[in-house]
From TrEMBL:
Keywords for the protein's UniProt record, in alphabetical order: Cell membrane, Membrane, Transmembrane, Transmembrane helix, Transport
Protein name, UniProt field: Uracil permease
Main location: membrane
Higher taxonomy: Bacteria, Bacillati, Actinomycetota, Coriobacteriia, Eggerthellales
InterPro entries reported for this sequence: Azg-like (IPR045018), Azg-like_bact_archaea (IPR026033), NCS2 (IPR006043)
Topology of this chain in the membrane: Multi-pass membrane protein
Length: 440
């Protein structure tokens, strides 16, 4: 096992990998409860969506561990599942059947896999300027911290100021503040498993405060009826779902839009996690990126096939990397837990967003350390980095933030008359972003 996963070679231990896997799992376990609810809005039976969510995450997370040997966990993506529920399905959206929506996801994943096999996805990553690469990881750090603060109720929406401070005396905020205090103090004292401890203790603290919801039942029956969704019959058109997609221009536009989102979300997430898990070189290049991209692309297609929405790499993987995960062994731990909790989802539901707040905030802090490596003295390289860092959390989208950075970089270089410094694939990516911003 040590030789297969290169545990000693990467200066890790089995204990570190287990703790890292547990930390990542708890940080992203909310998806077990959230995704089936979102998919049920789209029309998928809840038990079927739960089964698909858990087994899809389990299979692809373990696949990433075995084939890429990197601590990158995967599960159904938040954002894309919302697009499925509210933009593709439902009376207020296009109103397509959920099987057709899954066919859109499936086709998008297949196209991304083709791009990876052709080498285009890696080539675009290599074409990104160094400062923008560094900025992506920093922006994701702020994004992750923002997710934590928002989930903990410390930051709330406000019509007048957009965002404002939440009620710090509320039960939700108290649990979040305990989580932050524990995570910061334990991390400062270099306690092994600091983030995991903060999540578990905060979950316990939330019980008497009513934030942690105790399970009323311990299991669900497995339901595989959503599997092979793209190849099931669409009851609205009485044709195979995927045929409905390839013959409908509006649905093909959704395929393109989701492809852009998946393409660059993963790119940003991998760069962010790689920086914390020590598999990025001094130029910001991710080591052994090809197998990572292949597994992630296959996961998008598999998510559509399973009826789980697009399965993608999770930014919360940074929590496990900070906790010590360096190899794919942590993925095996995560994958096994996802499979087990297909039967015990209510137990995972006990881990509330406020309980994970501390772990995510500390991860955000740690990912900010790369800000000093950006050359801020030259606006032509610094401004694209700045707009990327700002854009990711403020638009609540890794893809949009990266798009802002790409477009601004190209515009500045053109204005300077330095067109020759723009790599061809940066032009391709920038044009694609421009089309996405205009038409999506």
């Amino acid at each position: 096992m040590d030789r297969f996963f290169k545990i000693s070679e990467r200066k890790s231990t089995v204990g570190n990998e287990v703790i890292g896997g547990l930390t990542t799992f708890l940080a992203m376990a909310y998806i077990i409860a959230v995704n089936p609810l979102m998919m049920s809005i789209a029309g998928i039976p809840f038990d079927a969506a739960l089964t698909s969510t858990c087994f899809g995450a389990a299979i692809m997370t373990i696949a990433m561990g075995i084939f890429a040997n990197r601590p990158l966990a995967l599960a159904s993506g938040m954002g894309i599942n919302a697009i499925v529920a509210y933009s593709l399905c439902g009376a207020t959206a296009l109103g397509v059947d959920w099987r057709v929506a899954m066919a859109v996801i499936f086709l998008e994943g297949v196209l991304i896999l083709v791009l990876v096999l052709c080498g285009l996805r890696k080539a675009i990553m290599d074409a990104i300027p160094v400062n923008v690469r560094r900025a992506i990881g920093i922006g994701i750090g702020l994004f992750v911290a923002f997710i934590g603060l928002k989930g903990g109720g410390i930051i709330v929406g406000n019509e007048a100021t957009i965002l404002t401070l939440g009620d710090l005396t509320s039960a939700q905020c108290i649990v979040a503040l305990v989580a932050i205090a524990l995570a910061v103090v334990l991390e400062t004292l270099k306690v092994k498993g600091a983030l995991l401890i903060s999540i578990v203790v905060s979950t316990i603290v939330g019980i008497p405060l009513g934030v942690t919801v105790m399970p009323t039942e311990m299991g669900f029956g497995l339901d595989f009826s959503a599997f092979a969704a793209p190849f099931q019959i669409d009851p609205q058109s009485n044709t195979v779902a995927i045929l409905q997609v390839v013959t409908t221009p509006a649905l093909l536009m959704f395929v393109f839009s989701l492809l852009m989102s998946d393409f660059f979300d993963t790119m940003g997430t991998v760069m962010g996690v790689a920086d914390r898990a020590d598999f990025v070189d001094k130029d910001g290049n991710v080591e052994d990126i090809q197998p990572i991209l292949m597994v992630d692309s296959a996961a998008a297609a598999l998510g559509g096939f399973f009826g789980a929405s697009s399965i993608t790499t999770y930014a919360e993987s940074t929590a496990g990397a900070v906790a010590g995960a360096r190899t794919g062994l942590s993925n095996v731990v995560i994958g096994v837990l996802f499979a087990v909790f297909a039967f015990f989802a209510p137990v995972v539901g006990m881990v509330s967003a406020p309980a994970t707040c501390g772990a995510l905030v500390v991860v955000g802090y740690l990912m900010m350390t790369g800000v000093g490596e950006i050359d801020w003295t030259s606006m032509d390289s610094a401004f694209p980095a700045f707009i990327t860092i700002m854009g990711i959390p403020l638009t609540y989208s890794i893809t949009d933030g990266i798009g802002f950075g790409f477009v601004s970089y190209v515009v500045i270089k053109v204005a300077q008359g330095k067109i020759g410094e723009i790599r061809p694939l940066m032009w391709v990516a920038t044009v694609a972003f421009f089309l996405m911003f205009v038409f999506a």
